[in-house]
Design brief:
The complex is a heterodimer of chains A (about 250) and B (about 200). By secondary structure, chain A is an alpha/beta fold. Chain A has 9 helices and 11 strands. Chain A has one domain: Alpha-Beta Barrel (TIM Barrel), CATH 3.20.20.70. An 8-stranded parallel beta barrel of chain A has the order 1-4-5-6-7-9-10-11, surrounded by 6 helices. Chain A is globular and about 40 Å long. Chain B is α/β, with parallel strands linked by helices and about 200 residues long. In chain B, the strands form 3 sheets. Chain B has an 8-stranded mixed beta sheet. A 3-stranded mixed beta sheet of chain B has the order 5-6-10, with no helix packed on it. Helices cover about 25% and strands about 30% of the residues of chain B. Chain B has one domain: Class I glutamine amidotransferase (GATase) domain (Rossmann fold), CATH 3.40.50. Classes of the chains: A alpha/beta (about 250), B alpha/beta (about 200). Chains A and B meet through helix 2 of A and helix 1, strand 7, strand 9 and helix 6 of B.
Chain lengths: ~250, ~200
């Protein structure tokens, strides 16, 4: 009955893996291929890799490097960053990416997303919602370039699932990113009730209890971990690791 | 030599990568009849729509050599995902007849709305293996990665090798003699999938 999933969410700057805190101050982690080889051994359910600079620098995904990574990923592999055209999607699927994560493209060209969903199926597209608390007012979705999106979080989630028809939503709390303090369970719970597609919680995970809560109390379908997958502990050195899946996932 | 059949559909690289990873070197992606003729194992991958798959197979001109290899020479073949569905007699998804090597049909998931299950079925699930076989252990507590909107229903239950559950029980592996199929993606199922491909390579 589709088991709950836990997956590393890796951030890539075009050269190597990095980790951010609240989407800022990327610290260098290491080589993605080495990390992926370790995640195979750790039996992660899935892998997400986001190129955090591609859209900002207006460059294409680094297809050659992604193909190298995909050749070592023996689990479903999702990629996001700088994907703009139908051909970009087609190339990624061809080189072994199962799912493409879209974010800034939602504002720039929603039609191409619909076209990809129609051609490759909903399960091949994940929409990422970056959300945070503005200085005034309620938590809201933000574009990758840092401006507030007009729709509120619920409207935006419904738009992505129902109008664009993407297969999954990834809910990424900017405020919780890199804090190790837990997911934004309140927002995630609210948005799960807005849509029928699977939801991936992201941002803030710091321990096993956070995973249990978000997967079984909040009822997210999947949980993405960032810091926990690349550091040994909060404030400590780089260590590619992964929590013991059996201690979290119920059958 | 294992030949991964290239008929213009599906992601062939992932399967090849996994064979390389487990140290099976004698593997080739090919759509040429000579290579298929020379193969001692065949792998039929595939994603997408049933008719598109059958049309590509027909246009590839490979059907005569495939029928001869699989049905007469009993060369082991493994169909993956759409590749398994193509082994059946027909699909609710399309008009074209399937290969009909497995006595089964392919039907669309139509889960009870009360269950709130999305189609496609996407994600990891355990499987129940129904009888002894050379690909997967009957005691297996292994999990596999699925992405599919259609499922196979065997007319001959003996050809249903393993089942999984998504709103209903469904056949997720088929087998008749030298012919095998897996609805899930072994090439994306970590060491669990590796063991199936490794066992297949040793048949």
């Amino acid at each position: 009955m589709a088991l709950k999933r836990i997956m590393p969410c890796l951030l890539y700057d075009g050269v190597g893996l990095v980790k951010t805190v609240k989407f800022r101050n990327p610290s260098y982690i290491g080589d993605p291929i080495n990390a992926i080889k370790i995640y195979n051994e750790k039996e992660v359910d899935e892998l997400i890799l986001i190129d955090i600079n591609a859209s900002k620098q207006k460059r294409k995904p680094n297809f050659d490097k992604i193909a190298d990574m995909a050749s070592e990923a023996f689990m479903p592999f999702a990629y996001g960053g700088g994907v703009k055209t139908f051909d970009d999607f087609a190339t990624l699927y061809k080189i072994g990416i199962e799912k493409v994560v879209v974010n800034s493209l939602i504002q720039e060209n929603p039609e191409v997303i619909k076209k990809v969903v129609a051609h490759y199926g909903a399960q091949a597209v994940v929409a990422c919602i970056d959300f945070k608390k503005p200085l005034f007012g309620a938590k809201a979705p933000y574009s990758y370039m840092g401006y507030k999106i007009k729709q509120d979080l619920s409207e935006y989630a419904r738009y992505l699932a129902n109008d664009l028809g993407v297969g999954e939503l990834m809910l990424y709390s900017v405020d919780n990113d890199g804090t190790w303090e837990g997911f934004d369970n309140e927002i995630i719970k609210r948005l799960i009730h807005e849509v029928e597609v699977p939801v991936i919680a992201c941002g803030g995970c710091g321990n096993i209890d956070h995973l249990k809560t978000v997967l079984y109390d909040v009822n997210a379908n999947a949980a993405a971990i960032g810091s926990m997958a690349v550091y040994s502990k909060k404030g400590m050195g780089v260590l590619i690791n992964f929590p013991n899946r059996e201690s979290v996932i119920k059958e | 030599m294992i030949v991964i059949i290239d008929y213009g559909i599906g992601n062939l690289a992932s399967v090849l990568n996994m064979f390389k990873k487990i140290g099976v070197a004698d593997v080739k992606i090919s759509g040429r009849a000579e290579d298929i003729e020379a193969a001692d194992k065949l792998l039929l991958p595939g994603v997408g729509a049933f008719d598109a798959g059958m049309k590509h197979l027909e246009q590839s001109g490979l059907l005569p050599v495939l029928n001869r290899k699989v049905l007469e020479q009993k060369t082991p073949i493994l169909g993956i995902c759409l590749g398994m569905q193509l082994l059946t007699r027909w699909s609710e998804e399309g008009q074209l007849p399937g290969l009909g090597w497995i006595d089964a049909e392919t039907l669309k998931f139509n889960p009870d709305p009360a269950l709130k299950l999305k189609v496609p079925h996407m994600g990891w699930d355990y499987i129940q293996v129904k009888r002894e076989n050379k690909l997967v252990d009957t005691e297996s507590r292994n999990r596999f990665y699925f992405v599919h909107s259609y499922y196979v229903k065997c007319f001959d239950e003996a050809q249903s090798l393993a089942t999984s559950h998504y709103g209903q029980d469904f056949t997720c592996m088929v087998n008749k003699d030298n012919i095998f199929g897996a609805q899930f993606h072994p090439e994306k199922s970590l060491k669990f999938g590796m063991s199936i491909l490794e066992n297949f390579s040793k048949l």
